[in-house]
């Protein structure tokens, strides 16, 4: 057990992983800290309160994506940015206290990834959003396990949805996106992922760090 501070990216089923990767605040590897059936994916860090810079947020997401797809793929419960702990003992206390909810969440999202779909119009173009939304639901909801409607933060943004999709259905979802783009060359489609399922996990960690 080390007394170094640790930054946590997410939680997976118990497994010994050690991957060289650029982590938050200069971390050079992502590895696991275990508690019974759980493993937290962590990197070493000098502070328990890392600065929320664009680079750090990008590295947080990149570590999660790497573990999500590593060696055939992993199911991972993602943590929000900023989860620093002063040592392994403190982190293991959190894993022990939250073990039931982590176990349940891992079962609920087992073998699944998050995919993002945004649809934008050209400047000043008019579109029937309700009609377009109905078409999007018809095409994509049947291939997904769950869906979240996200904020429309721009006048041009008419669709902003996150999908929880089985890994085995990823190819079918990709194909459906391609067909949608072919049928709507007047629209800009932004298709992203796979991501760890941020929008389908609701775990709040409160602990003395």
UniProtKB/TrEMBL annotation:
Q: Which Pfam families match?
A: GvpL_GvpF
This protein's source sits in the domain of life called Archaea
Keywords (A to Z) from UniProt: Gas vesicle
InterPro entries from the UniProt entry: GvpL/GvpF
Write out the annotated subcellular location: Gas vesicle
Quote a single Gene Ontology cellular component term: gas vesicle
Signal peptide range: none
Q: Which family does it belong to?
A: Belongs to the gas vesicle GvpF/GvpL family.
Q: What is this protein called?
A: GvpL/GvpF family gas vesicle protein
Organism of this sequence: Halalkalicoccus tibetensis
